[in-house]
Amino acid sequence: MNVLWEGLIQGLKGVWNIALIVVPLMIVLEIVQSNGWLRKLNRYFAKPFAGIGVSEEGAFPVVVAMVFGLTYGSGLIINHVRTGRVTAKEAKVIGTFMAISHALIEDTILFSVLGASPLLLLLPRLLLAYVVAFFVNRWTVEPSAKGNNLNA
Amino acid sequence: MFEVTGKMIQRGAKAGLETTWELAKVVVPTAVVVAVFRASGLLDTITAWSAPYMKWFGLSGEAAVVLFSGLFVNLYAAAGSIMALTLSVREITICAVMLMFCHSLLVELPISKKAGSPLSYIFLVRLACSVAVGLVLGVVLP
User: Fold this and answer.
1) Which residues from chain A sit within 8 angstroms of residue B93, using beta carbons?
2) Residue A2 in domain
3) Which of A12, A70, A114 sits opposite B82 (nearest CB)?
4) How far is the C-alpha of B5 from the C-alpha of B27, rounded, in Å?
C-alpha cells in the first residue's frame, strides 16, 4: 500500500508542477494565434525553409506543427496537398521535418520541469530535422518533373 | 494590432486544463505502476536485462523503462516513469533528448503516413536520429 501511495504522490506532484506552466502557456498561445501572429512568424521561418525547397505556403504547416503538435501540422499538410498549395515532394519534405520536430513548446517544458536541459531538448531536434529534410529534398524526384522531361 | 479578450483567455485555460488532464491520466498510473515494479523486484529484472544495451548511451539499466514507456506509450508515460525512478539529471537529459526524436510511435507513425510519408521510412529516420544523438550524448555529456 505504501508503494502505491508513493507512486501516486510522485505522479500528482509532477502533474501539478507541469500544470503550473502549461495552463498559462496555453492562454498565451491562444492569444498569439487569435491575433494572427503565427502567419507573421511564418514569414521569418520561411527563409531558412527556402534552402530545403519549401515555399512560404509549405512552411506554414511546419510552424503549426512546431507550436501545436504533429496532428495539427499533418492535418494542414493533407489540406494543402488537396488544395494544390504544396507539391507531393514538398509534402514529403515538410512531413519529414515535422515528424522529427513538433510540439516543441510542450515537449520541452515537460522534460525541463523534470531537470533536462531545454537547449539540448530543442537544438538537436531542429538541427537534425533540417539536415534530414535537406537530404529528402535533394534525393526525392518530383513525379511531375519526369513528365515535363518527357514533354521536352 | 493586438487584442486580448476574455474569450481567448477562457479558450486557452480550457486547452491548458485539458492538457493537464490528459497528462494526469497517463502520468499518475505510470508512476504507480513503476513504483510497483520497483517494490516487486520486476524493475531489477528489467534493469539487469537492459543494462548492457543502455550502457551504449551512458545510461543505467533503469532508464530502459523510461525509453520504452516513451516509445510505446507516449512522452507523458516517460515523464511518469522518470518521476517514479531515481535517475541522475544527466540520465534524465539523455533519455529525454533521445525521446524527443522518437516517441508515441503507435500513434504518430500512422499520423505521418496519413500526411503522405511512408511509415517505415519515417520510423527509420526517427529511430536513427534518436540512437545517433543518444550515442553522442552518452560520450559528450559529463
Assistant:
1) 115-117, 120
2) no
3) A114
4) 33
Q: With respect to residue B25, please indicate whether it lies within any of the assigned structural domains.
A: yes
Asked if the model's pLDDT at residue A150 lies above 60, the reply is no
List, for residues A110-145, the tens digit of each pLDDT value. Answer: 999 999 999 999 999 999 999 999 999 999 887 654
- What's the complex ipTM? 0.90
- Grid cell 555529456 — which residue? B141
Given a cut of 50, is residue A149 above it in pLDDT?
A: no
Domain boundaries, position A40: 12-140
- Whether B86 and chain A come into contact, CB under 8 Å, resolves to no
Domain encompassing residue B118: 6-140
Number of domain units in chain A: 1
Count of domains observed in chain B: 1
Q: Identify whether A44 is part of a domain.
A: yes
